[in-house]
Amino acid sequence: MNVLEIIKNRRSIRKFTEQKISKEDIETILEAGRLAPSARNGQPWHFVVFDDSSAKAAFCKEAFSGLYARTMWAEKAPVLVAFVANEGGLGMRIGNMLKRTLFWVMDQGLAGQNMVLQAQSMGIGSCWIGWFDFKKAGSFLNTSSGEKVEILIAFGYPDENPEARPRKEFKEVVSYNKYK
Question: What is the CATH number of the domain that holds 99?
């Protein structure tokens, strides 16, 4: 399957079978994230893998507490990956301020996209999770100043087959040589 077909077929999966993902397959997915491009090659990420049910349950109890309880379904995913983002050094922070762009956040997105597409190519479903308690997740992982748990991604073999969500037409989102 080519990359565009993988992209077209990928869906956010929230229901997984109980089938475990092999360590080799998890590491292939993580390698795809590790190889993502990043601003100034800063590679501002650390991937924390929860594949042990008790460790995952303890983390989820914190990350999905209170207002975030509706995301507790993620505890049932065979693998949950937490992205610990690093804001980078002084040069990166100055660049972020001048451009008003958080390059390290974009870098997390590039790594995450690589991972979910790699997983899809292997028949493994995924769901990008942004609805969780960032502070409690960071506290659980003992992050330091300048670090933040930015993203969670659940991985597992799909136990559902959601329909494709509607997309805008190509001509609505693309223009050549000028904006609109």
Answer: 3.40.109.10
